[in-house]
Amino acid sequence: MHTIIKFLYKNLLRPILFKFDPESIHRLFVEVGSVLGSFNITRKFTRRFFYYGDSMLEQKILGIEFKNPIGLGGGYDKNGETSSIMPDVGFGFMEIGSITNNPSKGNARPRIWRLPQSKALVVHYGLMNDGVKKIRTRIENKKFRIPLLINIAKTNDKTLTGDKGINDYVECFEQIKDLGDIIVINISCPNVSHETAHMDAKTLDKLLTKIDKEKAEKPILLKIASDLTPHDIDEMLAVTNKHKISGFIVANLAKSWERIPVIKDEIKPEMKGGISGKPAENLSNILIQEIYKKTRGKYIIIGSGGVFTAEDAYLKIKLGANLIEVITGMIYEGPQMVGDINRGIKKLLKRDGLKNIKQAVGTGVK
Ligand SMILES: Cc1cc2nc3c(=O)[nH]c(=O)nc-3n(C[C@H](O)[C@H](O)[C@H](O)COP(=O)(O)O)c2cc1C
Fold this sequence. Notes:
12 helices
């Protein structure tokens, strides 16, 4: 069944969808997801077509049960509208956001472009979202069937510099810290014009000192930039070692276009922002490995960037990732990709004589 769905998506649906503006299609998919999640029958129907589960894929991480290691990455569902359907699509967890203290309309349109030959997207949304108050109201009475990660960021407002910026993060955190299973602090949005994509160590230390005082009762992860140097990582780890941080999402959109394999003919002068998908894969893999080598399991690592197949996901796991997130792969391959990856990971574990994912984490790192 899943091979038929894959064939239909790639040969019938995708060619039609890709004729339209990417942002409108993104919005349409979120709305369809929200509607499908609203009824028992549509949830069951979706599950029948897409879901795959197996005990070899299950893990308990940070005290939280994950049915499988594949999660929806932050930025697909910015406003928390699709949490009722994602478990049936087959995700083992999902991340919503980035959510900011104040609502934001984001950057001017167009702000997302497809690069089909490069299997990538150029993203310049600029943290558009409904703001923490409205999103809180939307999700606070919901029951989640898979672990929910809530990604927060600083409001896209160029007056929020220095301590004002830190306070903006903290105010957002305060308002959402009791919801979801894990809070992700996005310290790496590449698409806010007045910001650098990587938060310096001093600012991070100030921010985390304030976050510690919030005494959140759940794990906190940092979403980091994709082009950190080994020195940046050392500085960051020196800070996180002093605070209550459980791990990292590695990594955000690639900002250094010159360092990644994008097919140059696809780049148009109007495109700006960060790149997702295949060209971002290697940067993410290098960073996962680097952080794992330096920390050897002290921190949880969620690998993000260019995962399209089970082999891509398994490579990240062998380099040190405990969990994986996807967005761009799903857009190019179709939603059945989630089940396909899980099915494939089980095969790869068996091939390597392993009983579960935990046994594979970091095995590719010398
Ligand atoms: C359309 C889109 C919007 C995104 N928005 C956010 C965001 O708001 N916050 C965030 O932390 N990451 C955001 N990202 C980055 C993704 O979470 C992910 O780190 C990156 O796309 C690499 O994964 P992928 O290659 O599987 O897409 C976004 C990515 C895409 C494609």
